[in-house]
Amino acid sequence: MNQKGIIFDMDGTLIDSMPVWKNLGGNFLKNHGIEPPDNLNEITTTMSFAESSRYFVNQFGLALTAAEVNAEINEMIRDSYGTHLPLKPFVKEVLDQYVRQGIKMSILTATDRSLVETAVKRLGILDYFEFILTSDMTGLSKSEPEIYYQAVETFGIPEKEIAIVEDSLYCIKAAKNTECYIVGVYDEFSKNDWEEIKRVSDRTINSFEELRK
């Protein structure tokens, strides 16, 4: 890639964390005595933290505020982000490479900022990034192209000189509304969408090793 800036997704792209999310919503509902619907992941996958919290309150009649739901879910996974979720293979090497090349980098994620900072500090990569932008900070879901425009604007680099690296099909489709170069990353959680991700993206990689020079 010859871009001057790169916007990375975090979960499933930089960090191997998607297994933690797979049963999170269902486990939260079960903790409150509610049997989750079979298609819960399908319903919530494109939602931001705030949107999914409001959905749980409104759909299941919880005696909690959306903010309280958000806080409880964060606490359910905070230990994972703080102790053991790893970088995907070769991510650190590629980030080091981009630093040497003078490429600016950022993170754009639907995950709560406190969890993001907990993870990237532990993994020793916080200082690699110019900024971290989250759905809750912007009030936008990653299914909305506007969140990508906002990230590009924050960078201050022309769209055509920026790459966006994502593992989720719905995010890639939203990002394609920009003029950025889109790189799709394979993740087991999104394997059913891989053929479509390959079709929509400008480039796809199975591993960050493919980006090493």
From TrEMBL:
Q: Which GO terms describe its molecular function?
A: hydrolase activity
What the entry lists under InterPro entries is as follows: HAD-like_sf (IPR036412), HAD-SF_hydro_IA (IPR006439), HAD_2 (IPR041492), HAD_sf (IPR023214), PGP-like_dom2 (IPR023198)
In terms of CDD domains, this protein maps to: HAD_BPGM-like (cd07505)
Which keywords does this Swiss-Prot/TrEMBL entry list? Answer: Hydrolase
User: Which residues are in coiled coils?
Assistant: none
Question: What NCBIfam families does the entry give?
Answer: HAD-SF-IA-v1, HAD-SF-IA-v3
Spell out the protein name for this chain. Answer: HAD-IA family hydrolase
The source organism is Acetobacterium tundrae
